[in-house]
Structure formats: structure tokens, C-alpha cells
Specification:
Largest sheet: 7 strands, mixed
Structural class: alpha/beta
Order of helices and strands: HHHEHEEHEHEEHEHEEHHEEE
Distance between the termini: 23 Å
CATH superfamily of the largest domain: P-loop containing nucleotide triphosphate hydrolases
Number of domains: 3
CATH architecture of the largest domain: 3-Layer(aba) Sandwich
Bound molecules: guanosine-5'-diphosphate, magnesium ion
Helix content: 25-40%
Amino acid sequence: MPANLPPQYYELEREFRREQDPVEKLRLGQELLAMMPKHKGTDKLQADLKAKISKLRQQIEGGQKKHGVRHIETLDHIEREGAAQVILIGPPNSGKSSLLASLTHARPPIADYPYTSREPLAGMMDFETLQIQLIDTPPISAEQFESHLLNLIRSADLILLIVDSTSSDLKNETETVFRLLEDRKIRLCATIPVPPDAPQFTFKKTIIVVHKYWEENSNIGLDLLKGLYPVFQIVTSSVLSDEALNGLKAVIFESLGIIRVYTKRIGQDPILIDPIILPIGGTVEDAANTIHKDFAQKLQFAKVWGKEKFDGQRVKNNFALNDGDIIEFHI
Ligand SMILES: Nc1nc2c(ncn2[C@@H]2O[C@H](COP(=O)(O)OP(=O)(O)O)[C@@H](O)[C@H]2O)c(=O)[nH]1
Ligand SMILES: [Mg+2]
């Protein structure tokens, strides 16, 4: 089975091989692992890389004991939890931390002066039957750019660019975020081009969130951004409106390109919590693989209850599932 690695992988791998500093090498290794698609074709690659990472860790820890000085930088990596990892970025004071506080149980510092958030902070957002991890970050501006942001952005599944629709400097603030990331070889885009038209870049799917909407003059900000970024999905939000927050949650889910599949045991009712998460187009076999590789190998067929199939219709292993389908495995 081919590994089907994204082009950025090869770039990063070259960097990984060249890197001499063990701490930096460890960071690159972790980034490679996060970027590697997880399927049978990459099993061996994953195992090799994990072995290298663990060796580097030992090397660093050994060195620390001896010298007692070196710290592993962890600001640039947040352990992935839930169905997906979504990062909130943007200019100072745009409302990133307020959104994290409104959408999750996390309690980031919020203030009406810029540069309140210095470190990334994660929280879990409930959306119907699943949870999505949101990461609040320090601002991006000409005055401040935390380099740990780069890795966080590269490993996230989706970028929310939060901008303040009431800001008098909206155009410049927004363009600065795009430009500073471009300078660092990260391109925010509406959809990821296939194949990527600039192989040295990491392309990240981005939604523009026009925040503090419903304040005076915020529609001027909205129109301005629609004019500047016509191909991007632009969504309005405000922490003062539950409707807007729920709308934003739905947009986040839809943009992730994932589906939820619920399992049921033969002769029992389905369990409509804790779904299996698959990319759109994921098959019965993919669903079985998330349980265990052996399980997928032994699978004879499945029955599906859902949108496209009649209740309990028997399907083959390559049947593409839909969001909300219920599956019963027969082995
Ligand atoms: N009117 C309005 N103010 C907001 C909204 N969200 C955040 N703010 C205010 O904007 C300021 C900056 O918010 P904060 O979340 O700290 O921004 P950050 O720097 O992007 O993390 C604070 O005074 C917030 O109370 C909103 O939806 N509407
Ligand atoms: Mg903040």
C-alpha cells in the first residue's frame, strides 16, 4: 500500500535529517509524525519515526541530567485531543481568548488591552456528539510574533483567523497576519490546492471569523473583508450571541471534512455517543480499522442504518459511509 505522503512531508523530512541539535530535531520529528497520514501504508514509517523520537528524547534527557540546563520547548506542541484540532489566530485584541472562553470550559486571560495571551491554551468544544479541541494563541502583529505559533499552526486541522470587525485598522491587521505567515512559508487558504502550487509552502485551510459583529459599524468591516478575501469562507461571530456561537460551531464542524459513525452490536441498540471519526468518504473498512487492524481484516460485511441505505442493509467493506450512519460489524 502506498504511503501517499503530502509534499510538505518530504521537505520537512529533509530538514529533520539535516538537523544536528537534538531538541530541534525532536521538535521536527514530532511535527513529521503529526503530519504523516495514519494508515496501513505508513505503519512502518510511523514506527521508525517513533523509535527515532524516543531515542532523541532519551538523548536529551540524558544530556539534561548531566548539565541540568536544557529544557524541552513544549509551547509549540499541544497534544491532540478529540475529533480535531482547530487553532484560533489573529491580530491583538480581536477576541480569540473570549471565543475560547465562550466555546469551551477553558479560562484564558481576557482584557481590553493587547498582548494579554502569551502562551497557547487549549480547550474542548462540545459539538453535538463530539468534541473538538480549540487552541487560543498569542497575537500576530508587526510588533509580536511568537515563533512557537508556526508549529502549532502547521499541525492544526483548521485555522480560524479571528479579526475584530470594529477595528479601524482591520485591513492592515488582517493583511499583516497573512503576510507574516507567508514570510514563514505558511499559506492560509480557502481550500488546499491539489497538487500544491508552491511545494515549499505549508497550506492551511482557513476560515475568516469576523468577530464582535453586531457592534456599531461592524458590517463595514464585514464588507471590507468580503472584498479583500472573496474566495474565503467568512463567518460572523460575537460572544454576545448564542446563535452566532452555535453557527460558528457548525461551520467549524462542516469545514473539518469529517463524518461521525456510530456503532451498534448485533441485536442491540446503537450507542449514539462517542462516534468513530472518519474523513469524508471513509469506508466501512476504515471504520473497522479505527477499532483494530485485526478486526478490519476479519470483517466479513457490515450492516448500515443511515442516509443512503435502507435500515440494516448489508454493505461491502468498501462502502463509503455518511455522517450520522450507524454501523453493525459482522466478523
Ligand atoms: N463587543 C464585543 N467585544 C468583545 C467580543 N469578544 C471579545 N471582546 C472584547 O475584546 C477585548 C479583547 O478580547 P480578548 O479575548 O482578550 O482578545 P484576544 O487578544 O484576541 O485574545 C476584550 O475587552 C473583550 O471583552 C465580542 O464578541 N463583542
Ligand atoms: Mg488573548
